[in-house]
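User: I'm putting together a teaching handout on how multi-component assemblies are represented. Below are the sequence lines for each component of a complex, exactly as they appear in our records. Could you produce the 3D structure of the whole assembly as structure tokens, so the students can see both representations side by side? Please keep the chain order the same as the input.
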Amino acid sequence: MDQHYDFARIEQKWKKYWEEEDLYKVHIDPGRPKYYVLEMFPYPSGELHMGHIRNYSIGDVVARFHTMKGYNVLHPMGWDAFGMPAENAAIERGIYPAQWTASNIASMHRQQQEFGLSYDWDREVATCHPDYYRWTQWLFLLFYQRGLAYKHKAEVNWCPSCQTVLANEQVVSGNCWRCDSQVVKKELEQWFFRITDYAERLLKDLDTLEGWPESVKIMQANWIGRSEGAEIIFPIKGRDDTIKVFTTRQDTIYGATYMVLAPEHPLVMDFVRGTKREEPVQRFVQEAIRRRGETVDPEELGKEGIFLGAYAINPFNGEEIPIWVADYVLMEYGTGAVMGVPAHDDRDFEFTDLHGIPKRIVIMPEKGAPIPEEMSEAYAADGYLVNSGPFDGLAVKEAQEAIADYLEEKGIGRRAVSYKLRDWLVSRQRYWGAPIPIVYCDHCGVVPVPMDELPVMLPEKVVFKPGTISSLAHMEDFVHTTCPQCGGPARRETDTMDTFICSSWYYFRYADARNEEAPFGKEAVDYWLPVDQYIGGIEHAVLHLLYSRFFTKVLYDAGLVKCQEPFTRLLTQGMVIKDGHKMSKSKGNVVTPEEIIGKYGADTARLFTLFASPPERDLDWSDQGVEGAWRFLNRVWRLVHNNLDVFQEKELNAPATTGFADKNLRYKLHDTIKRVTEDVEKRFGFNTAISTIMELVNEIYRYRDQLAGKELNTALLRESLEKTILLLAPFAPYLTEELWHTIGYGDSVHRQRWPDYDEEALIQEEVQIVVQVNGRLRERIRVPVNLPQEELEERALGLERIQGLTAGKEIVKIINVPGRLINIVVK
RNA sequence: GCCCGGGUGGCGGAACAGGCAGACGCACAGGACUUAAAAUCCUGCGGUUACUAAAAUAACCGUACCAGUUCGAUUCUGGUCCCGGGCACCA
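Assistant: Of course. Below is the structure of the complete assembly, with chains in the same order as your input.
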């Protein structure tokens, strides 16, 4: 017999069989519990990499396991197909983005099928198909109708390399998330989604996501950035208007020694117009705005500012405080104006040191402590109020409440909540995206395209003019249209949608992917959604995952879906690393899925990626480790082939007097079933599940060796081999299918029930007990399971070594952990 | 700076509720099979020391570091160091 199995032949054979059998097609079946497992759909770059394989291998095990467990499993795949690379390819190679994308999809689809992934391909979607983006546009209009989409002129993030704007979430440390170029600020009129309306719910509902990693929830909470505090209205000396500030430390109001406005604040120029300060302030403001657009690191910025010659009046003590403009105050957050409390805020402290503004201490850590003259740093911690008039002596928390109450009573302010989250900028000056379904009519203004006229088709035959912004804007046939309202001439919106919109709802579409009447049918989404298990990279912690949650809540409010959260459980997988770096062409450490398939087959590739590390952690690629996975699969293959006789005999031999070896094997088998089930179901412990199966296989080999030449319990051997195949089926679907048929079955192994373990088999007559003296391991003894405690202690104390260690000493106590150890404490 | 993870043999990792540290795999070493190699199978494999011809055995140390709680700590608590990730003046 060969030492190795012919993976190429086997994998081809069963791939074809599964396709012919429609093995992975699913339909709504209210009689069975559903399970929706989903891997984040990929961008069709044209090639699968190991990160994809890891992602899909995890999802496939989860899907196959639940199918065997009796669930009706939805496991779809599709393509996040709009985006920049297609445009670049078009420019570089003179091929239309639609064609380039379609051929990439075809080749990646083929590679996925090689891997034997259990997708229902009838539900495949591609976001660039009119059948799909029609509904993306429909959803845009739904948002528009609900007042959640609006056009607005604002200072936005601009990536000079991608030649388009970016949402805040898509700027990573000042750089573009996609191309890493430095992002600059630009004033543009753009479409936004009002995600800030949902800030509170997006934050609060994080608590309901018990199946999400804490780290992702914390990242989202930080991104939303909720702060509780107060707005305080300051009158302006000599004028009728007022300035409103937002603060989280209203308790420090008596320590406010100045006020600062953001450079963009409308009052800034108002204060200095026509005065000698106008020119320097103007210069300062322009410079501040320019620098803000360029500089990445706030440390480099320092704290520049300039006095405006005006004074605000502290409504609590009537004190006049100077009003400054400074670059460290942001117009977009709070009210764009801050009360400066240098003694109790690090930034204000630094600013006043620089510009010679006095500090006043109003919080002391202890009651009655002497108030120091000098401070070396701001005191931002807890304490008690001083120098604060009627509020003296209150603790910080109490003062915050008391002062908020006072503000509201006197009508000079109110409690307020501020968020760091900004509205989602969704327009992009790119061709390869879903057109925004809006027209501009000279007569009627902004007019949405009627829903029944969708899709607004993206012209496929595009010509890219280098250096121009959006190619769509140059396509006269596209731009010129008629107004849906008055029928007069109108222009189309030429910006397209952020591709994150397309990916914010695809998991709903899978439930009803071929629906031509609606984005999805109610029955289908109510049955399948939410996604029970979502699997993907941590890099989407606040991008795709936040946007999708937002979309789901809007669809919920519109009555289109029943769930308020899209993903019940989330698994964030680690990266695939080789030689200490992420695999990349520039590092020259890339191993392609195709190489591995060619050399060892899909099962080995899957098994290795699952075995080498737990899914959340980074995976260190090791060619030798792959070799080990390959060896193991062959070991299983040989084990079955070497024992084929037990499947051919009709009368199986099960001697009545089963010996220790038999009991031992049967225990191992059922213990393995139990552990593998729990590992996969509860812990995503694929690495330990596989190692447990390896132990079982080793045990079966040992059993054969032990009983070589003796009468075998063929019934037990057969049970062991069959169940080993079943346990391995989700991990190595091709090999196990082959073996399942080899041992004589006609149906697919992937239609079998997951094995249950037999409690009886797990009952042991003897256990090993560890004997410790003063917590140090000294002996191990085997005793009957139900040996009474006194007898166990007696036996332990009677052991020669233990006697030697306890002789002449006082036994203080004996700790007994049933079934595990006893610890004799002596003095 | 703030907020999260993580640190266990030569390597990837295991130890699930405070109870045998190092499962499983890789690498390595020795042996079997072979004319030979590959493949396969078997055995060993954290460190130090003692004893010994060798094996066996035993003691001590050991889960980044320092304290603490406990009969007992990789696991819990406090502090320190290092590595990785997120945020970026958010008042």
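A couple of points students might notice: The two ends of chain A are 64 Å apart (CA to CA). The mean pLDDT of chain A is 92.
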